[in-house]
Write a structure and sequence with these properties.
mainly alpha; MetI-like fold
């Protein structure tokens, strides 16, 4: 058994820190439960994550027809059952809760599997945007002077580019390359460049926050103790601007999901047949006036998930902002 070498004062301080951390977490949880809109957003986000991770377990059918012998009825209305006497490869007879699409595929199953693409879109896009934004914003805000002027002029030029049209050009140009047969990686390319075009926004936000933090006394104290610039940024500045980054990242996930779904809707995202909310809306637009439910459900899924992330983002902004938080 390992024997601790910490002094009694160090052990007491560690216990106090752990107790403060647990109290803070419990305070945030109570604040979440006391805000009904944040609670709704939290439930939506948790269900979304659970659905994306356990799609194979939750989905009543495979998102394509490859687990049926005879296929499903085409354009079945919601709350109907498969054709009487129909035989399935795995003897499934689960009701068609949301109906089927033009290919006889269960809409509910495709929405459940499509949550994975939405989750990947949010995570990949936000990761790219945050990494680039934090690097540019922290360096620009902390160093200031000529470096700040150069980086901010680059960011200004970057932000003047119409982001969605640039996404269309880039994704369309890379869709039919030899290393991307049949658009195999097009959806990933779309996710990456959605985040890439969001870097200037995060850089602007980080720069303003870093400018405010770098003038505080504890930064001067860190310099006086011999800390180098990289350590000051990593250990002192970034932890103090992280709450602001977290708020904007949470809200940005919803925007990334919508942008990626928009690219899929115009045929520059998911491959045909792949479960994807934007792609399913694209395939259903030809039959909208005859079978509106085929297009409604994927669009409703996008609306609910984006709403959930926005509600959580609003709550985080109120909680983490020292001028408004009450926990």
């Amino acid at each position: 058994m390992e024997i601790s070498t910490k002094t009694q004062e160090e052990l007491v301080a560690q216990v106090k820190r752990e107790r403060r951390f647990r109290n803070r977490i419990w305070a945030y949880f109570r604040s979440l439960l006391s805000n009904w809109t944040a609670t709704i957003g939290f439930i939506i986000v948790v269900l979304f994550l659970f659905t994306a991770v356990f799609a194979e377990v939750i989905a009543p059918y495979h998102p394509t027809n490859d687990d049926y012998w005879d296929g499903m009825p085409h354009f079945a209305l919601p709350l109907t059952t498969p054709n009487e006497g129909q035989t399935f490869a795995d003897n499934k007879t689960f009701p068609l809760v949301l109906g089927t699409n033009w290919a006889g595929e269960d809409i509910l199953s495709r929405i459940i599997y499509g949550a994975r693409n939405a989750l990947f879109a949010g995570l990949i896009s936000i990761s790219v945007g945050l990494i680039g934004g934090i690097a540019i914003g922290s360096v620009s805000g902390y160093l200031g002077g000529t470096v700040d002027n150069i980086l901010m002029r680059v960011v200004d030029a970057w932000m003047s580019i119409p982001s969605f049209f640039m996404l269309l050009i880039i994704v369309a140009a890379l869709r039919d390359q030899p290393w991307n047969p049949a658009g195999k990686y097009t959806l990933f390319i779309a996710m990456f460049f959605v985040g890439f075009m969001g870097i200037p926004g995060y850089a602007r936000i980080l720069r303003g926050s870093v400018l405010a933090v770098r003038e505080m006394d504890f930064i001067e104290a860190a310099r006086a103790t011999g800390s180098n610039e990289i350590r000051i940024i990593r250990k002192h500045i970034l932890p103090n601007v992280f709450p602001i980054v977290l708020v904007y990242a949470t809200m940005g996930i919803g925007g990334a999901i919508m942008s990626t779904a928009g690219l899929s809707f115009i045929g520059l995202g998911a491959r045909p047949g792949q479960p994807d909310w934007g792609g399913d809306m694209n395939g259903a637009r030809y039959y909208f006036f005859l079978y509106p439910h085929v297009m409604f459900w994927p669009g409703f899924a996008i609306f609910i998930v984006v709403l959930g992330f926005n509600l959580i983002g609003d709550w985080l902004r109120d909680v983490l902002d020292p001028r408004t938080r009450d926990v």
